[in-house]
Amino acid sequence: MKLIFLGPPGAGKGTMASRLSDSTGIPHISTGDIFRDNIGRQTDLGVKVKAILDRGDLVPDELTIDLVRNRLEQEDARNGFILDGFPRTIPQADALETFSSIDHVVNFDLSREEIIKRLSGRRVHKASGRTYHVVFNPPRNAGKDDETGEELITRPDDQVDAIKNRLEVYWKQTAPLIEYYKKKEILRDIDASPAPDEVFAKLKGLLRI
Ligand code: ADP
Ligand code: ADP
What we know:
The longest helix has 15 residues, at 160-174. The strands form two sheets. The protein has a five-stranded parallel beta sheet, sandwiched between helices. It has nine helices and seven strands, in the order E-H-E-H-H-H-E-H-E-H-E-E-H-H-E-H. By secondary structure, the protein is of the alpha/beta class. It has one domain: Rossmann fold, CATH 3.40.50. It starts with a strand and ends with a helix. It has helices spanning 13-24, 31-40, 44-55, 61-72, 90-99, 112-120, 160-174, 176-183, 196-207, and strands at residues 2-6, 28-30, 81-84, 104-109, 122-124, 131-133, 187-191. Bound molecules: adenosine-5'-diphosphate (2 copies). One adenosine-5'-diphosphate (ADP) is lined by residues 7, 9-15, 118, 121-122, 131-133, 136-137, 195-196, 199.
């Protein structure tokens, strides 16, 4: 199954993509995770995009499209994938059409108030990308990753100013994709506000899996 998870930052796309990937074996492809991994390893790409991510702006389309095209050419993505955080602009969506076909676009819907609560409480294990929330999904030991015991961090772009900018960027550049995919009749809306187990159950119902 070839899926896109669309929705504002903090809506729970990564959390649901990772659960769905664990239960189905379909690879979870997060452009944000790929950029952060490159930043951590200080690759040429990482050095180029670090300031952009920290501000909450978008990485240029051409660079992002090439990255996803290459990733989708890998063997594990041949029969299915969950794209989390891509496409984020109309040119990215147009480009995707030239190298892949999509079965469903799941649109995660959440109010601005809840988005801000989720982003400001998000904590991440840097090495694995595992994500927690101080209130909604706390680790067993405060501030520590459940599997490795290592320190959790707050992402630089989850600071208040960057959050505001990311939401603006989302409304201007990404939200138009809702109409774009609605017209193609592959958009499936999901209410992202309930607890994770409920959202996950609804997601599976929606995808009939
Ligand atoms: P996105 O990938 O859309 O930016 P995440 O999956 O990283 O969102 O989730 C944002 C934050 O909200 C994380 O801290 C995560 O633990 C928490 N979260 C995810 N889903 C839910 C949910 N259904 N209810 C409450 N908190 C959630
Ligand atoms: P969130 O789920 O919280 O919005 P992501 O991890 O998806 O965050 O993305 C983090 C950052 O990575 C974005 O703010 C942006 O700078 C960059 N990024 C991720 N995906 C894309 C994309 N498709 N196009 C451009 N920039 C992207």
